[in-house]
Amino acid sequence: MKTTTAARRVGAALTALLAGLLAITALAPAAHAAAPDPDTIVSEWKRNGHFYIDPSVQAPESAVTDMREAAAKASTVYLAVLPAKSVNTNEAKTFLTSLSDKVGGENTVGVMVGQTLIAHTSIPDVNVDRLIRDARRTSGTAADKVAAFIGSAEAAGTGKAPPEGASAPSSGGGSGLGALIALGALALVGGGGYFLYSRGKNKKQAALEAAQLSAVKKTVEEDVTKFGEEITDLDTEVRLLGAGAEHQHDWQHALDSYEKAKSELAAVKHAQEIRNVTTALEDGRYALACVKARVEHRPLPERRAPCFFNPQHGPSARDVRWAPPCGTVRDVPACAADAEAIERGFDPQMRTVMVNGERRPYWEAGPAYQPYASGYYGGFGDVMSMMLVGTMLGSMMGGWGYGGYGAGYDAGYEQGLDAGGGDFGGGDLGGWGDFGGGDFGDF
């Protein structure tokens, strides 16, 4: 009798385990398909109101409807929704440009690749990088954020107000609620194991991200403090120059940048916001370098990317040939002292950060430092992609301007990097919605 009871318990446990595994398999994303031919997408755009969705994409009907309606209201914006990872780093820029060229005229094209929106515009003075960052701050689902991007891009491209409803989060109606209830019923029947697995995974991921953000914030706080100390050290010499001297504008700019960096740091809640701090620091350090040049009666420095080895060193003086361990040689911007050290066979004074109990160069610190680096170097075109090739941060970032294909879509696209002019951009918009603590995945 005891043997029979034990056997039944084992059988029940195995059945429950199998149900959980089947639920995980059923809810797991399908294999990633290759991106369709640009001609196919553009042809569908012209027939179907500026909207295309790949047949293999599984998104809630209400989400598809919201995005389709937003695109239909636009005259210059086009949207395609593709499976996750169907466009890789090397293909992204060429793919977007091809779509834009085939559409013709002035346009903005957006492509939702899994959870990630990448975009390109041919319209002057439209910064899609900024538009994507703004869209990410919109409340609601990924579909709501895509609609917000479309509305803002249309307004920026035409100079008109956003189309009615295009930039506001959609209520979704009863059909969206019905879809969630239906999915909830399926999850309760066979997905209890998946629910618990996902909730635990999400908690661990949130804890990891919080720890990483704390570490990066400490690094940036050190940079802000260092900048403030350099301002203080120069204060007496600036006062001796007098209030009416030519240096005054640069001095005030440096002071303002310092205050902005402090306020941006205090406001940081998410990893991508670190970029705002280091952008202010880069700008302020150049202004301070100009003040130092005037104080020392030297020519004003060229506006160059900060020293790669340590952005605290301020604007670089020139490029120097350098290679990371086991990596290829490339030109990187360096301050005069670091450039000379390398050319004499010595190590530069690297900006190191604490990673797992040891200090490592920031470019070997992982994806959490993407926003940190992009704020310092994002305004200098392809500098990042060239100097970070072969480093951990370089592999995490993928192609400059796309923010992280190499790290996968969860780690990448957090900061929405630009391509030195705002005509390319990318940003993770999250899932279409959550149910019971379980992440829906890409869609």
User: In terms of per-residue confidence, which ranges show pLDDT below 50 for 5 or more consecutive residues?
Assistant: 13-32, 163-190, 392-422, 428-443
> β content, as a range?
5-15%
Run of helices and strands? HHEHEHEEHHHHHHEEHEEHHHEEE
Biggest sheet strand line-up: 1-2-3-4-9
- Count every beta strand, where a strand is a DSSP E run of 2 or more residues: 11
Roughly what is the average pLDDT, rounded to an integer? 74
- For the record, the count of structural domains works out to 2
Structural class: alpha+beta
Radius of gyration: 25 Å
Q: End-to-end distance, in Å?
A: 49 Å
Largest sheet: 5 strands, mixed
Number of helical segments?
14
The backbone outline, from C-alpha atoms, is elongated
Question: What percentage of residues falls in helices of 4 or more residues?
Answer: 40-55%
Structure description:
- Helix 3 packs parallel to helix 6.
- Strand 1, helix 3 and strand 2 form a beta-alpha-beta unit.
- The protein is of the alpha+beta class.
- The C terminus is likely disordered.
- It has two domains: 153 residues, Diaminopimelate Epimerase, Chain A, domain 1 (Roll); 231 residues, no CATH class.
- It contains 14 helices and eleven strands.
- The strands form four sheets. Strands 1-2-3-4-9 form a five-stranded mixed β-sheet, sandwiched between helices. It has a two-stranded antiparallel sheet with strand order 5-6. Strands 7-8 form a two-stranded antiparallel sheet.
- Keywords: Membrane, Signal, Transmembrane, Transmembrane helix.
- This is TPM domain-containing protein.
